[in-house]
Structure formats: structure tokens, C-alpha cells
UniProtKB/TrEMBL annotation:
MF annotations from Gene Ontology: 3-deoxy-manno-octulosonate-8-phosphatase activity; metal ion binding; N-acylneuraminate cytidylyltransferase activity
PANTHER family for this protein: HAD SUPERFAMILY MEMBERS CMAS AND KDSC, N-ACYLNEURAMINATE CYTIDYLYLTRANSFERASE
Organism listed in the record: Stutzerimonas stutzeri KOS6
Residues that coordinate or bind substrate: 20
CDD domains: HAD_KDO-like
Protein name: 3-deoxy-D-manno-octulosonate 8-phosphate phosphatase KdsC
Record-listed Mg(2+) binding positions: 18, 111
Enzyme class: hydrolase
Pfam families: Hydrolase_3
Family: Belongs to the KdsC family.
Amino acid sequence: MHEHLLQRARDIRLAIFDVDGVLTDGRLYFLTDGSEFKTFNTLDGHGIKMLINSGVRTAIISGRKTPVVERRAQNLGIQHLYQGREDKLVVLDELLAELGLSYSEVAYLGDDLPDLPVIRRVGLGMAVASADTFVREHAHGVTQARGGEGAAREFCELIMRAQGTLAAAQNAYL
């Protein structure tokens, strides 16, 4: 674990996730009736629940809009959901104004160019291992796991480890 990432993660009060390519593997599945479905990773889901329980607020900002993401956010208890918003930096500014937070208190996990302005602005901006090369090069850090395969869990645990809440969350299951 890189010390500079832990340092950046200590003051995080809001963790934001992209969806496609981060909470999913990035593939889009369209059915013949025009509807779509996505597959999510249960390890990621539990990591997000643990992060919320540790006191960190959570949000999703996605350029796409689909009912399945709304259902997933509700199931996990994600407090802030923005879909159909490609202007992610504008959404970030709206959210920070609402919550009274600063950029340094935000962590963001993304995978593609529309995520890059936010990744570069926040206190902890990370890319998943399967992210676009240019995005990985400009992020503060890159997860070992690929999007949809545990990257969000890794991101959540990094924040919790830095804040001293991970061991208690894990030990509750012993």
C-alpha cells in the first residue's frame, strides 16, 4: 500500500463511484426489448456498505441512466445518485456545496476520460486497473483489481485502512 495514498485517504468524508467500468466490468448488455442489465460484484457491494457504516458518505455519478443502477444504489444505501450526467465536475461542485465539503475530503473511483477532471480535482482520485491508460497515468493511484472485479472493495478498504476503521469492520465477523 502506497503511503501517499493512505495519506490522501485519511480525511475522506465522501467517496464517489462511476458505474460502467468501475462497479461493472464496463460491458453493456441490451435486451431485444431495449432494456439493459448490468452485473455487479458482491465484494464491491459489501465494501461500500462497510464504508458507509464507517461514517463516509457515498455517491454515484454516471453518464448513463438506467433503473438498475437506481436499484443497486438503494440496495447498498448509497446516499447520493446522479445519473445521465456527463458533466461530472459540475455535479461534484453541486454535491460539495450541498454537503459543505471541500475537494480534499472527496475520493473518486473512475475508469475513463469523462472521470478524469474529477479524479484530478479531488483529494484521492483513483482509477481501476482496467481503466483507460491515460486515466491511469493521471490518477493518484490505480487499484490492483479491474472494474466490476473487486476494485471498489479495494478502494473502500484503502479509505477505511487509512482512517483506522477497517480492522474493526472485519473483526466484527470473527
